Amino acid sequence: SDHMENICGYLMKYTNLVTGWQYRYFVLNNDAGLLEYFVNEQSRHLKPRGTLQLAGAVISPSDEDSHTFTVNAASGEQYKLRATDAKERQHWVSRLQICTQHHTEAIGKNNPPLKSRSFSLASQGSANSPGVQRRPSQNAVSFFNVGHHRLPTGKRVPIMQPDHLVDVREMMSQAEGQQRDLIRSIECLPASGHLTSLDQDLLMLKATSMATMNCLNDCFHILQLQHASQQKGSLPAGTTISWLEPKISLANHFKNGAAQNFPAEINKPASVREEQSIAEPCQLTREPEEINPDEELEDICDDKEDDLGAVEEQRSVILHLLSQLKLGMDLTRVVLPTFILEKRSLLEMYADFMSHPDLFIAITNGSSPEERMIRFVEYYLTSFHEGRKGAIAKKPYNPIIGETFHCSWRMPKSSVATDAGTDSSAHSPSEQATLPKDPEGQAELDYYTVKFVAEQVSHHPPVSGFYAECVERNMCVNAHVWTKSKFLGMSIGVTMVGEGVLHLLEHGEEYTFSLPCAYARSILTVPWVELGGKVNINCAKTGYSASINFHTKPFYGGKLHRVTGEVKQNMTNTVVCRVQGEWNSVLEFTYSNGETKYVDLTKLSVTRKRVRPLEKQGPFESRRLWQHVTESLRDGDINKATEHKRALEERQRNEERLRTETETPWCTKYFLKDGDGWVYYKPLWKTVSAAQTQQMDSN
């Protein structure tokens, strides 16, 4: 009690990316268990600008520096604060923790646990009305008239026969309607008063009712599958199973304070109906399409992902989502809110890793195996900065199975680094046979072309294949990636399972490589991206290898985005190059001869990719497929973007169920299964080998 003193003073409070840090005058009211803040000390007699109830709160010193700490209220609201020094931070943290513990224990004593907590929703008030006791007539049970429906004594539940599934579906449809009415009722409550739309118990009621309906949908789908397997072979030709609509989307219930609309099919925009009516991909042409690079135009799309205002505004959305997740949970099947999405597909993100084609082409120009390995490491480490488009932790669209993305880059030959001891205009005999000509075939072109194609080859698990080649330089790269995402508490981890192989056909060398893990940190405040893990690059023919470590920031101290690595000759175990720095800033390469090279990624030139106009793209090419979602996000219309996104996801679910029912395997377009991996159907190493064989036969 000696330490239960009211303290006050100035602290810096983080608002958002635009406003940043601002000085505010804070007051710790121990008697009421409140942390209040004002614009300045002079306005202390006015109404506080903000108030947090400390009962049940968590006070956490930040690992960013020695001055910052956070106050996480039980309501889900959070203050990110910064003191002038470490001593002042400790003073505030200790006093806040003492006050929090005192009021949390007081609530526990005044509210002993009940025998059954099934629908016991009484609490000590909400975040908007701290310290206010609810009248018995205003608890959530009496407000919504929630009760148990019990079976008559002595009656057993009859075993459900297959023909009863129709009745079950009808009952579940009624339950879903009642659940939507419940959500509407909660969200139409006022923002202040004795019972608000942000009340902790009501938010929990929303989450549990939604989770219950999703669970019932899962169970019903299992029953339908069992029924289908029992009836297989006895159904008339052309009969299909009638499925429930997709699970209730979280995004439909996120916006507090207004009832959500559940429009009928006829009220959907034409673009949504179009998305839902596109034919089954396997019924479209699945023959590989040769893309003419001359049809592609330089990309003028420049979608910046630096606006975090929506994240701050949608904090309740994130909290609602987090309340339904568990540590270690696989997020592959979790429907994420639309506002956290980037305006590009994951397949296009893989293409953006190729935004430095000059460094890619320069690999094969290395005069020795050692130099080629070092050049590959340099290209590899410079690819992540542009591929991520900054450190903002937004998520690309999950590709639809069968989705593809095509693009290319044109690189002036004068911009590509060559070996210092060779003439840049000289080419090997094998290269001379494939040098590009102009359309009339009269003269050699003055640029190299790098072509890229990616395809989503699997939905569960989500696997993407991508391939890039430069025919003129006899080099190509083939890779497949399975993205496994997990919930880690205050962050999300994504493991990139798979492997890539770079082929330098001129030298007969293959370089195998893997990809680091990615983490979205601080998902409740200012989400940012961090890479972590160890990756290896190996060339079996030359005996050179590289080991690269992406370091995650330690809990205390340390730098962000740090990377270290070394290149060595395996036979002699000699390190020929060391690298250190930040993968999104400056990299330092130190060679065995003592020379040092610095690469500033922020100043590195980026070559714009070339893509076909939307009207020339196929219906399953990324930009055309997601165009309505992207346009809505650009316009800031999150509801419309969510509607278009749901239409695409619903169509994918329906197609998958139809394939399961008819036992129709999925057929890919550009990639073929090869053991545990996927390989491009017409890789350069096969076409070059075939051409060489044909030339030998002709001789």
Automatic annotation (TrEMBL):
What is the protein name stated in its UniProt record? Oxysterol-binding protein
Keywords associated with the record: Acetylation, Endosome, Golgi apparatus, Lipid transport, Lipid-binding, Membrane, Transport
Gene Ontology terms, cellular component aspect?
Answer: cytosol; endosome; Golgi apparatus; membrane
Q: Where is the composition biased (Polar residues)?
A: 117-137, 416-433
Q: Which SMART domains match?
A: PH (SM00233)
- Which N-terminal residues, if any, form the signal peptide? none
Species name: Helopsaltes ochotensis (Middendorff's grasshopper-warbler)
* Region annotation (Disordered) ranges: 104-137, 416-438, 638-659
Record's function text: Plays a role in regulating ADIPOQ and FABP4 levels in differentiating adipocytes and is also involved in regulation of adipocyte triglyceride storage. Weakly binds 25-hydroxycholesterol. Interacts with OSBPL9 to function as lipid transfer proteins.
Q: Name one Pfam family in it.
A: PH
InterPro entries given in the database record: OSBP_sf, Oxysterol-bd, Oxysterol-bd_CS, PH-like_dom_sf, PH_domain
MF terms per GO, please?
sterol binding
Q: What's an example Gene Ontology biological process for this entry?
A: lipid transport
Per the similarity annotation, which family is this? Belongs to the OSBP family.
Assembly and interaction partners: Heterodimer with OSBPL9.
Would I find Transport among this entry's keywords?
Answer: yes
Under Gene3D superfamilies, the record lists:
1.10.287.2720, 2.40.160.120, 6.10.140.1150, Pleckstrin-homology domain (PH domain)/Phosphotyrosine-binding domain (PTB)
On whether Acetylation is a keyword of this UniProt record, the answer is yes
Which residue intervals define the domain PH in the entry? 4-101
Compartments it resides in: Endomembrane system; Endosome; Golgi apparatus
